[in-house]
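ARCHIVE CARD
CATEGORY: sequence design from structure
SOURCE FIELD: tokenized fold
FIELD CONTENT:
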């Protein structure tokens, strides 16, 4: 994981975030906890919101999008359980924060963002912080990235009306897909495992994400 010199105040806040918002609420995956204790979330939010970077709530990042609350990011990563040898696909780069965490947990990360301005900002931050195993793409994330498939893990940071078939098709046998599915104002976080080519679905928690816009999602 890249190293950087930073204000020690942020280090203290980040460790408090991990202890109080993640460990105390049941996140147990040590690799996820270590990554979230190291990746500087404040670098991925704009200056007006930087002092709130380690609070347990989402924050605006522009283009009517948000950076998800730390607990939800930690939960999704724990459910995804990326291994160091895995190739990961992320749908919805957003700020690039979860992308950085995936880069710390997996071998490689392809991330798709439909908003060019967000993609450019996230890519610049990731490059500045030294993440070299990430590729950010601009496009319709709901259809995935067939030319780079299959992926061991896929995470969708936007709400789909149903399981996106195109994404499931790009999942490796035995791989895991984490996606919020449901109405645009209320969803259930699902974990889908590919077993003998078929989806095995388990439900996690109720949640609320911005809608997944695209061919396999909601129409703009």
């Amino acid at each position: 994981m890249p190293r950087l010199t930073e204000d020690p105040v942020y280090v203290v806040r980040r460790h408090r975030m991990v202890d109080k918002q993640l460990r105390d609420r049941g996140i147990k995956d040590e690799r996820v906890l270590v990554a979230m204790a190291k990746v500087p979330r404040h670098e991925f939010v704009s200056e007006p919101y930087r002092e709130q970077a380690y609070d347990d709530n989402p924050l605006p990042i522009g283009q009517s999008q948000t950076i998800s609350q730390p607990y939800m990011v930690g939960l999704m990563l724990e459910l995804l359980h990326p291994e160091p040898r895995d190739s990961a696909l992320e749908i919805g780069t957003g700020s690039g924060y979860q992308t950085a965490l995936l880069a710390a947990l997996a071998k490689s990360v392809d991330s798709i963002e439909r908003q060019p301005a967000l993609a450019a900002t996230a890519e610049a931050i990731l490059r500045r912080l030294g993440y070299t195993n990430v590729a950010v793409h601009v496009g319709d994330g709901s259809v995935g990235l067939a030319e780079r498939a299959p992926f061991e893990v896929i995470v969708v940071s936007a709400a789909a009306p149903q399981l996106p078939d195109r994404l499931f098709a790009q999942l490796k046998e035995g791989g895991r897909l984490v996606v919020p599915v449901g109405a645009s104002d209320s969803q259930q976080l699902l974990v889908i495992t590919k077993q003998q080519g078929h989806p095995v679905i388990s439900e996690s928690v109720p949640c609320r994400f911005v809608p997944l816009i695209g061919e396999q999602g909601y129409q703009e």
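CARD ANNOTATION: The beta strands are 59-62, 65-67, 87-91, 108-113, 134-138, 151-156, 171-183, 186-195, 198-207. The chain has six helices and nine strands.
SHELF: design records, drawer C
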